[in-house]
Amino acid sequence: MHFKVTPSALRDARVTVPGDKSVSHRALMLGSIAEGRTEVSGFLDGDDCLATAAAMRSLGVRIDQPSPTELIIEGVGLHGLRAPAADIDLGNSGTAMRLMAGLLSGQAFGSVLTGDASLTGRPMGRIIKPLTQMGAAIESDCDGTPPLQISGGLQLHGIHYDLPIASAQVKSAVLLAGLYAQGTTSVTEPAVTRDHTERMLGAMGVEIISEGNRIALDGGQSLCGTQVTVPADLSSATFIMLGTLLSQDADIIIENVGINPTRTGVLDILRAMGADISLEHPQLLGKEPVADIRVRASQLHGGPVDPALVSLAIDEFPALFVAAASASGKTTFSGIGELRVKESDRIAAMADGMRRLGIRVDESADGAVVHGGRFTGGEVESFHDHRVAMSLAMAATIADDEVMIRDVDNVDTSFPGFCDRVTAIGGAIEILK
After folding, report:
1. I want to staple 191 with a disulfide (CB 3.0 to 4.6 A). Which of 51, 175, 214, 311 is the partner?
2. Of residues 315, 352, 385, 412, which has the active-site annotation?
């Protein structure tokens, strides 16, 4: 599928976006190994999370879905998972692959994790190393990419692991393995990363210790089923915010968005660029803070982006590249080398797309300089990356002419109904097959 986007005037609106992908993944995994029932509302019914649901079902967990956004998970307890009948296909989801590797390393049975062409090209050495130190046995392709063959029946032991790079996925994989390990497992991260795993473990009765950048838990603790309300996904809301900021005069409210402080770097970066963004009606949904986000059209300006905010906004940089392209002056991004090993090389993918639309971008190994300008019309590639596709679609709303964005099938991995939301705020977007 492809997007055809025609320049359009966005209008005032109040909208919602789908549930948080990170929280949805964790609700499925932790609810499955809890004792008793976990009821989930606000679930993200996207391809990535549905792949995780299918994976947990293949491991013997009963998961009912009364509606697209509701789940009832009948937990089997810490040691109740069963050997799958076939390889576990996690589609496009790097989060699922890395967290499941931790979860399955301490099981009595072996398993194989695989995925689509994009996922099987992504590096997994960063999780294989600490899990192996804990006593796991994981085989991968020679370059550390999936499929991952995970041996069963091994006794894990707790370790202390200093993360070489800030990664919530690696941290979570080690902590999940730590549930099955003897002794204490702890992780120290070089910068703050999203803490959804720690919050949900705590909500399910696990005693977890957070002291500064060190997180620790003792193995063997049981989880208790609970109610999980998934907030709207800030990463998805970012695309609506971006379109609003680029517009002539739109004023848009996005309801009940997760504003976990380990995720809000994108708000800080945009505000530093001059964005008019405010939070209204803040509250807690379980352990997760939420608020309505109000965004008004703004004149943005470039400048250096604080590298300290990178780990708090790692998924939002494709959208931030577009914001930088519409800002006055130039914007310098550094310390974002992690983007080169996402669903695509997101630095190269965004640089390619914006150059095709008339924007000057200077790349470096771990960053880029984006020069403000005007988007022309044309045809661009998404490189099968959902965030690249949606970022370029929002850029197209203010382009000089029509923009075609190729190969956008993966948008449904994180934002089902994306085109409907864009249309609801006045955007002119079509799906072509």
Report:
1. 311
2. 315
Write down which residue in 168, 195, 229 finishes a domain. 229
Per-residue pLDDT, 188: 98
**CATH of residue 279:** 3.65.10.10
Spatial distance between the Cα atoms of 4 and 226, rounded to a whole number of angstroms: 43
Strand partners of residue 290 = 258, 283
Instruction: Write the CA distances from 365 to 266, 309, 337, 356, 369, integer angstroms.
Output: 22, 18, 7, 21, 12
Q: Given 177, 197, 229, which residue is the final one in a domain?
A: 229
Is the Cα dihedral 142, 186, 135, 219 positive or negative? negative
Q: Which H, E and C letters describe the chain, residue by residue?
A: CEEEEECCCCCCEEECCCECHHHHHHHHHHHHHCEEEEEEECCCCCHHHHHHHHHHHHCCCEEEEEECCEEEEEEECCCCCCCCCCCEECCCCHHHHHHHHHHHCCCCCCEEEECCCCHHHCCCHHHHHHHHHCCCCEECCCCCCCCEEECCCCCEECCEEECCCCCHHHHHHHHHHHCCEECEEEEECCCCCCCHHHHHHHHCCCCEEEECCEEEEECCCCCECCEEECCECHHHHHHHHHHHHHCCCCEEEEEEEECCCCCCHHHHHHHHCCCEEEEEEEEEECCEEEEEEEEECCCCECCECCHHHHHHCHHHHHHHHHHHHCCECEEEECCCHHHHHCCCCHHHHHHHHHHHCCCCEEEECCEEEEECCCCCCEEEECCCCHHHHHHHHHHHCCCCCCEEEECCHHHHHCCCCHHHHHHHCCCEEEEEC
Instruction: Give me the pLDDT at residue 234, please.
Output: 98
Averages of pLDDT over each 10 residues, the chain, 433 residues: 96 97 97 98 96 98 98 98 98 95 98 94 94 97 92 97 95 98 98 95 96 96 97 98 97 98 97 98 93 98 96 95 98 95 93 98 96 97 96 98 96 94 97 93
Residue 384's domain comprises: 2-19+231-432
- N-terminal to C-terminal alpha carbon distance within the chain: 5
- pLDDT of 149 reads 98
**pLDDT at 341 (0 to 100):** 85
Residue 315 is a catalytic residue:
yes
Number of domains into which the chain is organized: 2
